[in-house]
Design goal:
2 domains, Herpes Virus-1, globular, 3-stranded antiparallel β-sheet, single chain, mainly alpha, 5 helices
């Protein structure tokens, strides 16, 4: 539980405390499921890397990874990966573990959104001020835009910025990779 939230947790009714604990427990269970799915996927990928066909795929991918690939190159890359999977006989296992990983990731992301909405409702219900953005002097934790506040919001592309700068982005486009994003897809990270 973050130190900002602890002071608000003390004023909650028992029902709201129980709901919060239940939500955090559910998030932890989903996170464990995500970690497990990630380990299963890594095992399959590790087995795939041992095949000769994978080396061909890997070389093809590394040549083109430094720039944006055309659709044809992307399709060739996928075809090479699929050939490597079929050669060693576990394409179905790869697809299943990749699907499980995506589902677990989506569930964790959804639960984090539910937790964030619950916190916002609590701020409103109890007439509490929302915590301000946290300033930091540690360069690795500073927002790359303002260089002042702590990075605590993740864009769908994976880049992280502070909660002060993201609402100010007029183009709804990531400053790093230029991918567009929707406001409701931004995830707030908690300590």
């Amino acid at each position: 539980m973050s130190h900002k939230w602890k002071k608000y947790y003390a004023v909650l009714s028992n029902d709201h405390k129980n709901k919060y604990v239940l939500m955090m427990t559910h998030l932890q269970l989903l996170q464990r499921r995500l970690d497990s799915a990630n380990k299963d996927f890594e095992k399959v990928v590790q087995r795939l890397k041992e095949t000769p066909k994978y080396k061909e795929y890997d070389e093809y991918w590394k040549e083109r990874a430094r720039r944006i690939m055309t659709n044809e190159e992307h399709n060739t890359s996928r075809r090479l990966r699929d050939e490597a999977l079929e050669e060693c006989g576990f394409k179905e296992e790869y697809d299943d573990t990749a699907s499980s990983l995506r589902q677990a990731n989506d569930m964790v992301r959804g639960q984090r959104g539910i937790n964030e909405r619950f916190r916002t409702a609590v701020y409103i219900l109890y007439d509490l001020p929302e915590p301000e953005a946290e300033k930091t002097d540690i360069p690795e934790k500073q927002c790359a835009i303002c260089m002042e506040y702590k990075k605590d919001h993740v864009l769908p592309c994976g880049h992280v910025f502070c909660g002060v700068c993201i609402p100010k982005m007029k183009s709804r486009c990531c400053p790093n990779c230029k991918k567009s994003f929707e406001k409701n897809k931004v995830i707030k990270m908690f300590d």
